[in-house]
Amino acid sequence: MNISPSQFAVAVETDNRRRALLQRFMHIGRRVLLTLPVLWLVVSFVFLLIHLVPGDPVAQALGEGASAGDLSALRHAYGLDAPLHLQYIRYWIGIFHGDLGTSLRSHQPVTKLIASRYPYTLLLSVVSMAVALLLAVPAGVTSALHRGRAADQAIGAASLVGLSFPNFALGPILIILFSIRLGWTPVSGAGTSGVLSMDTVQHLALPAITLALSLAAILTRMVRTSMLEELGQDYIRTARAKGLTERQVLYRHALRNALVPVLTVVGLQFGSLLAGAIVTETIFSWPGIGRLTITAIGNRDYAVVQGCTLAIGLTYLAANLLTDFAYTIANPRIRE
Q1: Which of 42, 128, 194, 272 is the most buried (most CB within 10 A)?
Q2: Fold of 110-335
Q3: Residue 294 burial (CB < 10 Å; 0-12/13-18/19+)?
Q4: What's the pLDDT tens digit per position in 91-116?
């Protein structure tokens, strides 16, 4: 059977695409396998650490006036009278069956508690990341274009200030300024109308800005450094020599390539937003997983602490995997 050169070229191109797709899935598969031991170590470490913390969760749940029989009965009901290694095995068996245990304080399933709080933490993280990118990308590009000038120095100084303010200091300052003095935003909470209501959006403003400012400072420096590197490449001079406008050169070529290394930082920082949200949610009484974790630690509520840690760990690993997948699409050379 005779094959024309065009048919042969099409067949070769199709085969190359299939191989590239297979390599991409193999790369992601390897990354998934590597994250499983990390997740196991995180959950195991938290399980052992929370059991080593001084204090009796059962006595704290029942109060000082509880009898010895009541304490013993509750420990047996929650399996806390079993040896530690047996509790560990039971916990992992429960995870594989979708059962994260029951809260000692509220007596509700941990999965139900996390499901009711997780959307608020996810909303806070996504909005904070969006605000940070909206601030960082224009600021980083402007700083790179005006390297060494007043605009570059001003943006650098603003970035330094953003990095210097921790969340636990910035949050109260924003509350005093915008909530107490100006009365523009609610002081705390998330409203009572649901996750995606306008009431929640008003309550979301200050905690999102608190998380976004320090992240924007980091991303601004990343964008600036990456843009300076790209603007010095030969293809930029070639694009200008072809008569492209400066706007086309900057945004169609330089910025597009400059954002590729920034993707990795965005993924890692999105995971760190979950950790930062623990402090921010506590300051603003935001009903997310972070605040639930802090409350559970104070109450020695083992099951809730372990469940929240597992949820945060899974989200962190999922964000890293999605970032890695996006990076392989933007820069296929890393698969080689």
Answers
A1: 128
A2: MetI-like fold (1.10.3720)
A3: middle
A4: 888 888 888 888 888 888 889 999 88
